[in-house]
Amino acid sequence: MRYRAFSLFALTAGLAVLLGDIGLGVADAQVAKVQNKNKKLKKADPPPVAPVAPVAKAQPAKPAPKPLPTVIPAPKTKDAIGLAKLIDAEVNKKFTEAKITPSTRSSDDEFLRRVYLDITGVIPTADKAREFLDSTDPEKRVKLIDELLTDPNYGRRMADIWSAKLFPIDSANRFVLKEPLYKWFEGEFNKNVAWDKLVTSLITATGEVGTNPAVTYFLANRSVDKLTDTTAQHFMGIQLQCAQCHNHPFTDWKQSEYWGMATFYSKVRADNPKNANKGGDNTKIGVTENNAKSKIKDFFPESAKTVPATYLGGGEAEVSLNEAYRPVLAKWMTAPENPFFSKAIVNRTWAHLFGRGFVNPIDDMLEENAPTHPGLLDAMARHFGTAGEFDLKYLIKAICLSDAYQRTSKPTEDNKTDQSLFSHMTVKVLSPEQLFDSLAVVTGIGRGNAASPKAKGGKNAVGGPRTAFVNFFLAGSEATSPVEYEAGIPQALRLMNSRIVNNPGSLRGIVGKTTEPTQAIEQIYLTALSRRPTAEEMKMLKEYVASSGMSSMSALEDILWATINSSEFTLVR
Amino acid sequence: MFSSRLQEKTRRDFMKLSAAGVFAPSLSGWLPVMAKAAAKGGKGQAKSCILLWMDGGPSHKDTFDLKPDSKGAGDFKPIKTSAPGIEISEHLPNIAKVMHHGTVVRGMSTPEGAHPRAKYIGHTGYREGQGGLIYPSIGSLVSKELGNPDGSMPNFVTIGGRSFGSGFLGPKHQPLLITDANRGVEDLRATIANGQFDNRVGLLEKMEKAFQREYQADAINDHTTTYQRAVKLMQSKESKAFDLTSEPSAAREKYGSGKFADSVVMARRLVEVGVPFVEVSLGGWDTHQDNFARVQSLSGQVDSAVSALVADLKDRGLLDSTLIVWMGDFGRTPNINTRGAKPGRDHYPRAWSLAMWGGGIKGGSVVGKTDKEGATVVERPTSAQDYLATVCELMAIDYTKKNETATARPIQIVEKAKPFTDMIV
């Protein structure tokens, strides 16, 4: 079966690390040989299920054999600059093959706004922007990356992303508190707890919400199937849920393997939040792990199969009946040699910064869904789980240091159709959270709420202007696409006509007392767009002020309105 | 892997190109293909749907499926209607006069007994949480299939209550929410004078063009298109549909008074300007206590609004192209509870009724039947999926068509359905 071969491949990949470490020049060749053997093994396997439409579409019928991924030695030391160089070496190779030229380095203002939004989820203030743009320090980009990674807004940005994923929209969750989990994420990410440790804390969480908010993961995904799906999807990059009811049509996941994974959660006892809500305190509910199979009603769907605890694509777990199962799962999942875990987070982090992963959709890392840069993804994943110490800030820093990340998003004539080789930066769309927080910087609306989403009652993250705004822009979905502009008419109307944007105090807050057009326009641009206007723009806008026939204050308000409603504001270039 | 969004984009690009004249000569070549695709959806002729959602779950035995000889018969008497053989509650006397335009589905039977989950399946045809997805509601599905993506009007409007949204179809197909029909669309009007607003839009357009020239990203085009639509809506004649002050008061009175009546008037006005899906909700049907007084009062609101709506649509020649659906979360227990001071009925998804008018149905028919107590469906049990597939067919939508999620999973519009279209057209 293919995934068996896949895990075998993980072993050979491990070998490559070893060889790479010893520095044998022949490593690549040897590994390639081992892989050839793998390939043969695979051929002997029964043919895979005929791929259905979407897969077929993605890979038009070309029977050409898949080229073997070149195994790239993973760096053996934790060195962000070194890793960035590896990234560029690999990314650049593809340009030669595809005969395209990459776009040039981003301008300072492009980089500034991009890295602020990507790492901290919010645009810089005008003062920060001016300081960075005017600095002549050749190291200013590195320094800025370091500064932003220690900014507490980094934790908030990550908490926004992860609480949306791990706390799904579900009517059963209306009695589960979101705020404690959100705060927990914020703290853990800001402390930069290693990714393997963080995930272990989540999937082995025991206790009450009040003392261990990580248990919320179980309360918000309160059945073995939901837990199995979310664990596979978010931490291993695998869409397993189809195998719940039938063997997965695209892949080799069998129904029995689904329930083999689900068994790891079978001894969990998660309190019913609804009961606690009736006169109770829902910080006092929580999770324990029993000695025997859990007996909560609804924790097992009707379709549940009883299968011994089995690692995905691996063997049956050696567990004794009295043993807690979840730590065993966590240990297997977060092991550096696990074929899914590091790859999933590396791919996800890459997509966070580039708008698309090496594999897309990012949590559907099927073998058929080949990475654009298989060797690089593999090397980064191996490195991340070993010398990289599962250190997320380090990974982000290394990627941000790369030329690939620091390219302009302006395409060139010959690379404008490229959407997968990272020849120019993707233009990304602000998430609703980024949009709200950035609007708050410009207009002052919701200030005080931006930093900590607070409920009317003060405890729950549901409520408050930030949450209301975000929900309005999400319109019932869990997250918006990072690359497609999806907002509709109601959102556009809100941005054009509501008080959020037409706050009478905003302009004063930005330009202070001056009404001198040149100064004021520059200040508006620095505040909203983190750049100075070009000479051409300045000319056009000054003419606008002069010819509007209104007070210059009104004309400046028009300019502010237009910048906030522009796609440049709503997008990350 | 072509996501549905990608397809949308392709189509939009095509329209752009055709507008520019690039494809103009071959345009005719596309039409037969399009016509064929439409024909696959069935013989339906409805272009719009008004869904009247009775929030809380109305008692079927006190509205459209009375059982005067049963144990929990309740206080209400059945009356004859304009459709021979169909009897409904005495508190729906005006609806009784338009039943020859309608159908009662008395065999509804669904698996969910809790409000949120029941509403979820009733709107989406999928059980909440199934397969880890958020499914689009019928309004969003119709918006995607029949809506005009570049028009000035939204393609899905909900009035009076939060509905279910577009799920994996993305925010483009989410409903425009009207919280109070008398206040109209939020943020529809600029807070500044028209002239100044136009200046601002002019300025914005200049910025957009310059930005697009340099960055050439699809997201910029999409942003521009959305803003153009919103500005068009602000300036359009159609947006008058949202303004109830322009409706003659005599015309409004027929609908009754109150929020629900106003919402139904707005729904009719929206359908008149071509909005394909409007949902209006009326709360208060969760009558665990004091069932009879409350159902009587709610019935009064429904009676005047629905009868006026059917009559108005008929007058305007829009009844055949507008499907009206009246339904709620589920039915209510055949027996009457005595827990509270005043008797009530509890949740009951096993057997319940919904009603439809217009939309090209032949009228005067009944689908399904419950037993003597109104407790069990004995003929033509109808699932949420069966009902939703029927709505699709009546609107010429192929319900077996598959939409793709962001992860390219193909999801059928309605799955496992046996529509009853043939019984009513």
Indicate the topology.
The complex is a heterodimer of chains A (573) and B (425).
Chain A: H1 2-22, H2 27-44, H3 53-58, H4 80-98, H5 108-120, H6 126-134, H7 140-149, H8 152-166, H9 179-191, H10 195-203, E1 207-208, H11 216-219, H12 224-236, H13 255-262, E2 268-270, H14 273-277, E3 286-289, H15 326-333, H16 341-354, H17 374-385, H18 392-401, E4 428-429, H19 432-443, H20 464-474, H21 489-497, H22 506-511, H23 517-529, H24 535-547, H25 552-565, H26 567-570, E5 571-572
Antiparallel strand pairs in A: 1-3, 2-3, 4-5
Helix pairs in contact in A: 1-2, 4-18, 5-7, 6-23, 7-18, 8-9, 12-13, 16-17, 16-18, 19-20, 23-24, 23-25, 24-25
Chain B: H1 4-19, H2 27-39, E1 48-54, E2 78-80, E3 87-89, H3 93-96, E4 102-108, H4 115-124, H5 138-146, E5 156-159, E6 176-178, H6 194-215, H7 218-235, H8 249-253, H9 259-272, E7 277-282, H10 291-315, E8 322-328, E9 331-332, E10 347-348, E11 352-358, E12 365-367, E13 369-370, E14 377-379, H11 384-394, E15 402-404, E16 410-412, H12 421-424
Parallel strand pairs in B: 1-7, 1-8, 4-12, 5-6, 5-7
Antiparallel strand pairs in B: 2-3, 4-11, 8-11, 9-10, 13-14, 15-16
Characterization of this structure:
With 573 residues, chain A is mainly alpha-helical. In chain A, 50% of the residues lie in helices and 2% in strands. Chain A is built from 26 helices and five strands. Chain A has helices spanning 2-22, 27-44, 53-58, 80-98, 108-120, 126-134, 140-149, 152-166, 179-191, 195-203, 216-219, 224-236, 255-262, 273-277, 326-333, 341-354, 374-385, 392-401, 432-443, 464-474, 489-497, 506-511, 517-529, 535-547, 552-565, 567-570; strands at residues 207-208, 268-270, 286-289, 428-429, 571-572. Chain A has a three-stranded antiparallel sheet. Chain A has a two-stranded antiparallel sheet with strand order 4-5. The radius of gyration of chain A is 26 Å and the shape is globular. Chain B is an alpha/beta fold. In chain B, β2 and β3 (87-89) form a beta hairpin. The longest helix of chain B is centred in the last third of the chain and has 25 residues, at 291-315. At the A-B interface, α3, α12, β4, α21 and α24 of A face α4, α6 and α7 of B.
